[in-house]
Amino acid sequence: MHIDKEEALKNLVDSFVNGNHEAFAAIATMVHADILNIAYRYLGNAEDAKDVLQEVLIKMHRSLQSFRNASRFSTWMYRITVNAAVDALRKRKSLFNVATRYLKEAKEKMAFTEAPNVKSKEIFIKAVVQELPLRQKNAFILKHYQGLTIREISKSLGCSQSSIKTHLGRATCTIRKKMEEKV
């Protein structure tokens, strides 16, 4: 998130906290695309991402009064969004039909093997990212799909920068290994 946008969000938060409840609509307008993008990267489904967006905006509205600018607004928003997306994944996994999952994966793997073009590789990488352990997945998505720095990811996820580097390295290694197995 750019510094100008961060500053504008800070001003809107201050306005909201001081009683201007219309400021929240402006906040939501400024961040909804970021929230949707993160949620979609985790869930791979636009409808589920929209559900997460709604949940995140509700959580933000309820807790914005307690936001004290101790961290950047974007860091706070990323944390709420990642947690909501992970919760949605957990709910989905508990309801997910295993046979449907394996059928979909088999089709994606066939597409990759039969036509190793860029789109097929993107689908394959997306599938591998979904299988990564949670911390690796969090770090990878925020770094490679959201463009956050190691420091921003560290603040968003509440762990050290060296831990983030380790998770990114492991995620990258796993993805490379799976790619080599398919080629």
Structure description:
The protein has about 180 residues and is mostly helical. It folds into two domains: about 1-95, RNA polymerase sigma factor, region 2, helix turn helix motif (Rna Polymerase Sigma Factor, Chain: A, Orthogonal Bundle); about 95-183, Arc Repressor Mutant, subunit A (Orthogonal Bundle), CATH 1.10.10.10. It has nine helices and no strands. The chain has helices at about 5-15, 25-45, 45-65, 75-95, 100-115, 120-130, 135-145, 150-155, 160-180. Helix 3 (about 45-65) crosses helix 4 (about 75-95) and helix 6 (about 120-130) crosses helix 9 (about 160-180). The N and C termini lie far apart (about 35 Å). The model has no long low-confidence stretch (mean pLDDT about 80).
State the gist of this model.
By secondary structure, the chain is mostly helical.
SSE layout:
Layout: H1 3-17, H2 23-43, H3 46-63, H4 73-95, H5 98-114, H6 118-131, H7 134-145, H8 150-157, H9 161-182
Helix pairs in contact: 1-2, 2-3, 2-4, 2-7, 3-4, 4-8, 5-6, 6-9, 7-9, 8-9
